């Protein structure tokens, strides 16, 4: 793809997609939970902006609707819900340092390179200008997975899950000009319901192990005394 | 580019090289002035750094009796290496013989030479502060240099040249293009510039607290004309990074031919850009707090990550298969 040959709006799509990828990295490495939620909200806003610009440049009118829906859900409602739960669980000042932040970041960089290599044959087809954003979307998905692996905190893992959804949405918008409206509505509803369920789970996990650190789930044992001893 | 190796072009190059030490104290004075205004102080005149340099140059230079000849030589080496590095950066015009003989890698090498001598001089006298400052400086620069090179390689890959003049010419020749790689490289290079020039989130240029000193700790033993040269070199380095950021990412106005009118426009444009950049630096230094030394690696990791993302987004998004 030759960037200077593209119209300005399509260059803007590429720029915004790159920023979405950068926010994935921010999410992965951000140690403060509240800041991570903000980063997630910005990522959702950027995905909505990508959708809107694709709609503008391709004259695909139903994409305006999904852009609005994305903005409403991913940038406003879900972050607000997460924020409220974090407040109610009294985790506002909670920080979670990664064990080896540099290693996690470098692994994420490796994932970006891997996904670019993976979509190379698809990009070579040169079907649409946004084809090369597919690599970025795949990288966002993989970094979301990585985040769910390296983070111990349940809220952070949910953020990883939600950013996977962002990556999938970006892929759908950039590769095919958006899914049919009914599918999009279904996915949006699914995400919302998932968020509500996660909220319930947060409180359940908290009640049973007295923390949201999911690693503690490994240490459950039969007798209460042993569990008491092992708890640091 | 062989036709620009004429005596008049060399004259222009010399004039431009002389402009760097002449303008560097002005930039520092401007940053200090804006900072003072932001803190509701009136502040010293923007010409104050010139007065300080003159005062130091006429003072007697005292040298510790444990100092080796390296200690006396270091200020000159640091000053000349920094000045030479600055001379390779296009300030007014891009068609310069210095741009042909020296590229970005030479620039990084000259800055590294200056830094090595600065650190050696810090350790030479044998005081505790000097060694501490030198080790801190080396830690910061070891992390900053890969980030800087990576950011610069991103630009070089876009322009297919490591020559600063051709990078700027390529950028000017394009129509307006939104490049994600430039955005990331700009952010990365700005963070590196803050770390390398010892500005506030990494090092405080006005401090004399032992906990926070980096650059100050290394030059603590210097006095008189030696100190003047060291301070002047630090000011040139700040100007160098300022010009680098301003001219590579916002090259508009820089002269592409040696006509007097376009040179004057180039001078006006770079002064305007530096004034804006200096004001932005002053605002950043006012709102940010200095970070702990052990947070600096994380800061420079971010710079490296940004530069790396710039490189990757260039390869993935801009070139494609």
Structure characteristics:
heterodimer; A: 232 residues; mainly alpha; 0% strand; globular; B: 321 residues; 12 helices; 71% helix
Task: Give the gist of this structure.
The complex is a heterodimer of chains A (232) and B (321). Chain A has 232 residues and is an all-alpha fold.
Folded structure, characterized:
The complex is a heterodimer of chains A (232) and B (321). The longest helix of chain A has 29 residues, at 181-209. Helix content of chain A is 75%, strand content 0%. Chain A contains nine helices and no strands. In chain A, helix 2 runs parallel beside helix 7 (154-176) and helix 7 (154-176) runs antiparallel to helix 8. The termini of chain A are far apart. Chain A is globular, with a radius of gyration of 19 Å. The model of chain B has no long low-confidence stretch (mean pLDDT 88). Chain B has helices spanning 7-38, 48-58, 69-87, 97-101, 104-124, 128-159, 164-173, 180-196, 215-218, 224-249, 260-287, 296-319. Helix content of chain B is 71%, strand content 0%. Classes of the chains: A mainly alpha (232), B mainly alpha (321). The interface between A and B is medium-sized, with 30 and 24 residues.
